[in-house]
């Protein structure tokens, strides 16, 4: 299988260099004494974040216990965040800490493989699933300082789609990895649908409105591994973007690096132990008739500690028609 390559004609700090074809993974990135030119981002994208985002920290314990007062309070906090920037964190979310630890262990198992093994599951043109080293197979500039592994998830009776993905791509030795991620995806889907209930309550529509819409969801998991960077002020782990999907649930380690563009400045989302970060995507902005915001965000890198994050993207079934409930159209006066 062909490796992911850096262009042989690229320049390093203004000098033309001749470079043997070299796969781009964390071991490659960490061998560089300077940031290669393809990984250097424009100054406008690199403006530093000096403040912490004042996002809501929402305890879901009462909601899961059926406490109406706690549920209304959680919905109010969610509404306040989503009208402003679309980011909040949740605690007592029901995802077992032992499962998260297993997910992290299997995360490391994959990303610590030799590049030749990781390339067995290399993403191919036209398919969103698989491994990518800095997206260098698709782009040559503004490359992200990271590796990713992406795969899909949907409920399909007794079929274990995630287990099948890992076994078919990496062999029986990764069956346990598939089982762990299968269980994680199932837990994330359940949590995402619960958050959809809270979003519906916060918008004043039927409580089951969005849960029903996403009951046949086809979702995405993306594992992001950000190695240390020699010159972190020159590069980004993930460039500025809005999520095109409906809802993102992010598990991040305690290193930090997620930043959100709010009030015309970049602000840090500080990791909270045991919490998950939630943010609204473009599709849900449409489902809320433009009331709730999908906000620009990015991931920075650092020179000291590698960083890991796992993003679960809730997506509607492919043939679902995305439109807001009529109550929201009537309230706003027009469909956005």
Q: Key terms for this structure?
A:
alpha+beta, disordered N terminus, 336 residues, single chain, eight-stranded mixed β-sheet, five-stranded mixed β-sheet
Textual characterization of the structure:
- The protein has 336 residues and is of the alpha+beta class.
- Helix content is 31%, strand content 21%.
- The protein has an 8-stranded mixed sheet. It has a 5-stranded mixed sheet with strand order 3-12-11-14-9, with no helix packed on it. It has a two-stranded antiparallel ribbon with strand order 1-2.
- α3 crosses α7 (175-203), α4 (97-111) crosses α7 (175-203) and α6 (161-170) packs antiparallel against α7.
- Per DSSP E runs of 2 or more residues, the count of β-strands stands at 15
Q: Specify the helix fraction band.
A: 25-40%
Order of helices and strands: EEHEEHHEHHEEHHHEEEEEEHEEH
Unreliable sequence segments: 1-21
In spatial order, strands of the major sheet run 4-5-13-10-15-8-7-6
Q: Characterize the biggest β-sheet.
A: 8 strands, mixed
Treating each run of at least 4 consecutive H or I residues as one helix, how many helices?
10
- Helix-strand category: alpha+beta
- Seen as an oligomer or otherwise, the chain set is single chain
Average pLDDT, rounded to a whole number, is: 90
Summarize the structure.
By secondary structure, this protein is an alpha+beta fold. Helix content is 31%, strand content 21%.
